[in-house]
Amino acid sequence: MSAGEIYALLLALLIALAAGLVGSFALMKRMLLASDVISHLALPGLGIAFLLKINPLVGGGAALMLGTLLIWRLQTKTGLAVEAAIGVVFATAVAIGAAITPREDILEALFGSFQQISLTSFVLGGLVVIGSVMALFRLKDRLVLSIFSPELAATSGVKVRRLDLYFLLLFSLVVLVGLRYMGALLASALLILPAAIGRQLASNISGFLAASAGASLIAVLLGYLASSTLWKMTTPAPAIVMVCAVLFVISLIFPARRAIAS
Known about the structure:
With about 260 residues, the chain is mostly helical. It has helices at about 5-30, 35-40, 45-50, 55-80, 80-100, 105-110, 120-150, 150-155, 160-200, 205-230, 235-255. Helix 9 crosses helix 10.
């Protein structure tokens, strides 16, 4: 493996770690399926970036953050459930993205490319991911309290609406970093499947987070190795998702005695 390939794999593992942790909180907040929707909010920005020949992350990031803020405003101002607010923005974003994204770039936007990256890109991406994980753990106790007892969280001085915004932004940031190397579909899969696996294998919050992060790391590593040695795929995304699916089946066979409630 070249240095660029090693950097790409290490960054993918860091992203997998963050996705497993963020996905765990998304499952507890009953918005896990929304991760697939949020990952597609970047499509209009990606399409504009492809058309203007600029860095896709710039366009995708702008669209993703704008969509996230719009979802939060819809939720807080109209009283819509988060799923409904996300659904409204998602339908519009996908339509615009499909209309303006060049056909030859759609596959890369959806499945990623896992191209070699420079040391600078690795360091910048790694800092963003590590910063997101650190921020998530700073919010951990307040998030857990707001999930299981919103009334108690409010009386304890936790600003629940602002906390929801912070989580949505962290959620979107992890998706954004994953878009460049994993694509929209794999980024959402790493938020959904490892969290579902962790829920089956753990009986407490700490174990849940550890199991989800571990499943995500194992899936990326084994999927990458399988795609580069066994199947010779152009992108390891399908192999990674298939490994996740196998791990989920195994978790159904050997669940914890008292799995985390969703």
